[in-house]
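User: Last request for today: this protein with manganese (II) ion, please.
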Amino acid sequence: MSTAEQPEQSQQHAESPAPRPRAEPLGPVDSSRVPRYAGPATFARLPRLDETGGRADVAVVGVPFDTGVSYRPGARFGGNAIREASRLLRPYNPAQDASPFALAQVADAGDIAANPFDIGEAVETVQEAADGILATGARMMTLGGDHTIALPLLRSVARKHGPVALLHFDAHLDTWDTYFGAAYTHGTPFRRAFEEGLLDTSAVSHVGTRGPLYGKKDLDDDAKMGFGIVTSADVMRRGVDEVADQLRQRIGDRPLYISVDIDVLDPAHAPGTGTPEAGGLTSRELLEIIRGLASCRLVSADLVEVAPAYDHAEITSVAASHTAYELTTLMARQVAGEREDA
Ligand code: MN
Ligand code: MN
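Assistant: Here's the final one, the structure of the complex with manganese (II) ion:
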C-alpha cells in the first residue's frame, strides 16, 4: 500500500500549530490524491479502528445478518453496499455546517460476525459486541443487516444510558409479537424492547409508516406501548420542518436512539430492500427530518434493511450512505458539544 492510501490528518487540524489537548482525528483518505474508487471500502473512506489505535468517538459497525427477515432476504450484504456507495461522501456537511470527521474521531470498526443459523445466538453476539464498543465511550452507527439487530443494540444502549427515547423511521411498525412462533425477527424488535423496559415510553415514535396491516389491533397494541405515529402521509401534509419540530419537542433532552429502516423511503428511492411499500418518503424528506434533530442527544443509531440484490444503480445504497452521514454528523456534533461543556 502506498503512503497516499493511508488515512490522513484532516486538513483543518493538520495545519494548526497550537498545542493539542487531545489526539486529533484521523480523517478520510484524501480523494484529491487517491481517487475515490481506489482501495478497499470503509465507510466514507475513514480509517479502520485498528488504524486509530482503537480510538473512536463514533464507530461505524456492520452487522451482516438477515436471518430474521419475513420476505426478501439479502440485507446481510447491506453494510458493504453502503460502504461502497459512501466513497462519494465528502468531509464537509453544508446542510449541518459541520465537518463531522474533524469534530470527532469517526472510524470503521468492521463487522460483527453473527451466526446466520441461530438467531438467538446472533442476538447475543451483537449485544456483546455492542457492549464492548459502547464501553470504550464510542457512539455506534450500525449498518445492518435486517431490523432484528435493533433489539440487541437497544439492550446495549439502555444498559449504558437507561431507557432511551426512540425515533423509528420505517414503513412498518415492527411491534408485532411473533412470526411462526419466533420472538426475534425483523418485525418484532420494538415490542421486545418495550417488554424489556429498554424504551422511555414517553418519547417513542414511528415516522413514515404506511401500507396494509394484519388488522386494526396492530395499531391498538402499538399505541398501548406508547408509540406516537407520524405516517408517511403526515410528512407530506405537514412538511418536514413541522414534523421535526414535533419530534424534537417530544424527545426533549432524553438520550435518543434513532433506528432507520431504509424501507421508510418510497420504493422509487429505495428499491433495494426486503419489504417495500408504496407511498413512502423521499430521500430529501428523510434527510431533512434527520437534520432537523440537531439539538437532540443522539447516543447511537442504526440503518438497516438495505438489500443490494434488488437495487438498481446504487439508488438505495447511495440514499443509505447519505442517511448514515447525516446521523454520523449529528453524533459528531454531540461529541464536540460535550467536549466543550466538559
Ligand atoms: Mn420496514
Ligand atoms: Mn423495520
